[in-house]
């Protein structure tokens, strides 16, 4: 989990330089190759090989191994004396808390709000989230106070007319954390706010003709949105707009730089920006993944997914690995070939994967049964508990609220209700996790939110 380079001040070898470490390394590599070479009844569809299968390592590589300590005490000492060559795994804190079953849930009361669809941490103490009833809310984890941020009106909004609530489906923060993009009052438009004050900046309008389902920032100025109308729009929020200060908060209207149809798609459901390959990945409800160039904003290719049922969430790892939440499994795709690397089957039948995210080498998935599961990408299996090795780590959400409904009340005695986890997000330290959602049936009104720490 931690790594520190140890170089001798006196003598020839460092304190962690032992020749048996090289022997142990060779034995592990040999065992791994032996495991990989075994023929299974059902071979993998996609196999990746290391750069070299040679058992011999160069002298430079051996010295590198011998001078590298994975002891956490050495990492702490290196940090104290400000050595340059030390690092710690991004998911170290969350992995330790999860495997030792230290996460405890604090339920959050949301009143009469309906279903939370998206969320992001604004700071160490604030979480912003959007609901199906078109409310943009900020929750303070210290004071437990909820504040509503006014939705921004566009020029095509009829004043005083109540619109149909179809929800805020996306909340995205730019890389420098100076701007927040989300849905406007008219859910065919986008709204941009300044951080950390949440003052209005602008409304992007007249691009989409149906609900905006997702957005992703390419950098601090350029934003891409995807809609149910199968269109994708490119927007630019300039530094002049973002830096403008006025006594009375007002916002301007902007138009899309480019509006293009996502070919071979039916309703663009999810978007993500793959920084490693400078490409935009779009997921459509007809079971396709579409790849666009972020530099030219042109569609490069589309690929049919193995399953066309309930592909509703998409995430990308820093290395470029894609994760797609399906009805009964999470599909991992290699971004270079779009070939399936692995189908991570759900441990609960028929649960449906509703949210997915990467935190280091841990893939977190939220299900339609109120359960969060954690898949260890390095180990190739669900995260095991250190308390009880016979079980895997899962977090089970509290029930939240379901508002009175005749059909629900009639069946309440015969059904076991659990909320769907439509969104989850880690804070910057990885030691706190916000989860939210609500009832899965479209006709049911209710909400769920919880803070795990």
From TrEMBL:
Keyword presence, Ubl conjugation: no
Residue ranges constituting the DDB1- and CUL4-associated factor 12 beta-propeller domain according to the UniProt record: 101-452
Q: Is Cytoplasm there in the keyword field?
A: yes
Any single GO CC term annotated in Swiss-Prot or TrEMBL for this entry: cytoplasm
Q: Where in the cell is it found?
A: Cytoplasm; Nucleus
Question: Which terms are listed as keywords in the entry?
Answer: Cytoplasm, Nucleus, Repeat, Ubl conjugation pathway, WD repeat
Describe the family membership recorded for this protein in Swiss-Prot or TrEMBL.
Belongs to the WD repeat DCAF12 family.
Name by which UniProt lists this protein: DDB1- and CUL4-associated factor 12 beta-propeller domain-containing protein
Look up and give the organism this protein is from. Cryptolaemus montrouzieri
């Amino acid at each position: 989990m931690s790594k520190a380079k140890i170089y001798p001040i006196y003598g020839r070898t460092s304190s962690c330089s032992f020749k048996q470490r090289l022997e142990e390394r060779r034995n592990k590599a040999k065992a791994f190759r032996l495991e990989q070479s075994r023929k299974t009844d059902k071979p993998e569809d996609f196999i990746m090989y290391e750069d070299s299968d040679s058992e011999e390592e160069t002298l430079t590589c051996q010295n590198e191994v011998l001078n590298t300590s994975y002891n956490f005490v050495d990492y702490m000492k290196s940090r104290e004396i400000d050595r340059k060559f030390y690092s710690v795994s991004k998911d170290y804190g969350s992995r330790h808390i999860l495997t030792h079953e230290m996460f405890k849930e604090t339920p959050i009361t949301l009143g009469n709000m309906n279903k939370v669809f998206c969320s992001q941490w604004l700071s160490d103490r604030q979480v912003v989230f959007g609901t199906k009833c078109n409310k943009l809310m900020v929750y303070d984890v210290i004071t437990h106070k909820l504040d509503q941020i006014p939705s921004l009106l566009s020029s095509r909004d009829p004043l005083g007319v109540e619109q149909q609530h179809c929800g805020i489906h996306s909340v995205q923060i730019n890389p420098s954390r100076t701007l927040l993009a989300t849905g406007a009052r008219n859910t065919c438009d986008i709204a941009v706010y300044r951080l950390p004050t949440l003052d209005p900046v602008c409304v992007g309008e007249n691009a989409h003709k149906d609900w905006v389902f997702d957005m992703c920032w390419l950098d601090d100025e350029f934003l891409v949105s995807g809609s149910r109308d199968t269109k994708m729009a490119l927007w630019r929020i300039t530094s002049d707009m973002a830096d403008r200060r006025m006594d009375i908060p007002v916002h301007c209207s902007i138009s899309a730089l480019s509006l293009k149809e996502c070919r071979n798609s039916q309703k663009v459901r999810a978007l993500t920006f793959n920084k490693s390959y400078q490409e935009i990945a779009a997921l459509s409800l007809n079971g396709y993944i579409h790849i666009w160039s972020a530099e030219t904003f042109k569609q490069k290719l589309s690929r049919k997914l193995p399953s066309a049922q309930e592909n509703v969430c998409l995430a990308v790892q820093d290395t470029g690995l894609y994760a797609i939440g399906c009805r009964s499994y999470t599909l991992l795709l290699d971004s270079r070939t779009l070939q399936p690397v692995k189908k991570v089957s759900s441990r609960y039948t028929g649960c449906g994967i509703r949210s997915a995210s990467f935190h280091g080498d841990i893939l977190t998935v939220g299900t339609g049964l109120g359960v969060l599961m954690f898949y260890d990408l390095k180990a190739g299996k669900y995260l095991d508990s250190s308390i009880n090795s016979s079980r895997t780590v899962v977090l089970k959400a509290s029930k939240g609220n379901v508002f009175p409904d005749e059909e629900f009340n009639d069946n309440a005695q015969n059904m076991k209700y659990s909320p769907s986890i439509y969104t989850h997000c880690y804070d910057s330290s990885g030691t706190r996790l916000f989860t939210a959602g609500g009832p899965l049936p479209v006709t049911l009104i209710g909400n769920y939110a919880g803070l795990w720490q």
